[in-house]
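When time allows, look over one protein, given below as sequence and tokens. The question is which stretches look regular and which look disordered:
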Amino acid sequence: MQTNTGIHIGKNSRDIEEYGTSAFPAAAYEVCLRKTPLGFYDAHWHNRLHIMRALPGSSIRVTTDTKHYDLHDADAIFLNNGTLHSVYPVQSRESIFQIILFDRRLISSFSGSGIERDLVLPMSSFNEILLRADNVAHADMLTHIQKGFSAFFSPAPTHEMAFCVEMMTLWRILVDGNFFEPSFAAPLGSDRAKAMLSFISNRYNSDLTLDEITGAANICRSQGSKYFKDYVGKTIFEYLLHYRIEKSIDLLMKTDHTISHIAYETGFCSASHYIERFKQVIGCSPGDYRNRA
């Protein structure tokens, strides 16, 4: 089983973790938030259907746009393509959860099929579907999520087929049970927050101003700051600091660059400022973090 210790964010603040192959566009992994660089996953989105399931004995808090969901002990949430979300631990509980990502083509039989036309595309405007382990009506769907996760890692030569069967069955139950909400346009605030997140991910190593970041969404600084806080859950500069720190950790672990080089490479004005901020967020110096790894 693949254990993931951090989401790799690329352009547009989308997760660019490997999604398998073009022939099988799916991924599954288990995450322990405590072992990720920041201890949480900041706001981002995927270009795949996305399932998160808390393991028994674990809890996570998932935010989607302006909503908050606490998942406990085998609860799950199913997110649509492009749904902006963050993941945080809940109090002192363990925070281990499973992730499944897959392209909707895997449940469409083939491109242009009647299944795709009538049962997949018309249902593809939802944001999220919450599944509770203590709700009897959700039991079958949670079972198929777990079976799909297990099938992904099965050594059987038919494991890809088994995974697709489980995801298709999950989708069928959701359709039959009318779990998909009517189609609504994405919230304007979410789109504006994404525009600012995309700008930051492309320009984080530059000296950014508030006007530049909010201007990426074509709104004024006060309005932009409000949208960002509402949909991302923190201020623009809090997010920017965490983004830069996470990018710097990637360089600390994968290169032998000096601390000064990494500081300037990730947008900090000096090595001393970088070290101070790193200690503030991570709890130790960049050099100590590198040596402990």
